[in-house]
Design goal:
This protein is an alpha/beta fold. It contains 10 helices and 17 strands. It has 2 domains: 5-122, Rossmann fold; 130-311 and 340-357, Dihydrodipicolinate Reductase, domain 2, CATH 3.30.360.
Amino acid sequence: MADALRGAVIGAGVVARLRHIPAFQEAARRGTAELVAICDPVTTALDEAGDQAGIGERYRDYREVLAREDIDVVTIATPNSVHEQIAVEALQVGKHVLCEKPLALSLDGARRMATVARDTGFVNSVNYRYRWVPSARYLKELVETGEVGAVRQVFMNYFNAAVLDPTTPIQWRQTRAEGGGILADIGSHLIDLALWLLGPIQRIRCDLWTFTRERPSGGSDMALVDVDDAATCQLEFASGAVGILNASGLCLGRLNHQRVEVYGTGGGVVYEIARPGDIGGDRLHVCFGEAQHRIVGMAPARTLPWHSGTPLDAFLDFFQAIHDGREASVTFDDAVRVQAVLDAAERSAASGGVWIDLPTDG
């Protein structure tokens, strides 16, 4: 293999420490990439992440990172509001880029990012990591091989309790200017899974709710919460399947809980994981045919060796794609399709939950 890629992480918050830095550390063990610099405008976050990574080259201005000709790749773990600016500049100066999700704050912004990525020709990816959960990979195999039959309905839930406590100070994710709300934050993962599993969504209607309308913002000040705490969407797929998608940050007892139920003419499959460690990701529950339906119902099915995956695989695939001279398994174009669904969902909710048609070209 060619020499290890030299990389930088831009943004040093929780997700950088949980995913981006460990991904570079694993890549270094494999000889595909190494982390040489880290960047964040907040000194405390920068030092915590730098100490975790053992990186002495720390920057507060991402432009200084991009100016380094010895850096091949950057991964972006910043607030959503600056994804576009950083990614576009990085691509234009010759860096390969992996960005956190959702790709941008708007569909127009996401499209601009994808256009620059195509025009420059550098490898690009997005951290839609749940495609690598072993049970999700098994579910996709069962759908694609036809064992589920023609899919009729899908039910998708993603629950945590991240925004339940109204005394928790406001974070960037609870602002429209920087984050975008719970549907954009965790619902985007479900939308990506829906598109990956079942293909294009042609229509959507959505309801968004904000239960906590203000939060502490330093001292005695309160800040307006102008994004959603919970979301419910109805989906119609181009295949004829229909679905319900729920995303909520109000659910006590749920720690990173996902559940996807797919029902077709030949069978039903349930995928479910919980907690940050993806507990349950080694199995599905399945029912195939009338006999099993009558006698047993749903039964556990263990994943197989070729379904293996880890929470770091979106990054490892990105690094390997650069070495192989191919596209990453998830690209900015994929993320634009997610952004189009998010955009339509927000427009539906703003109009009282009317049905919105999705563009056929993303």
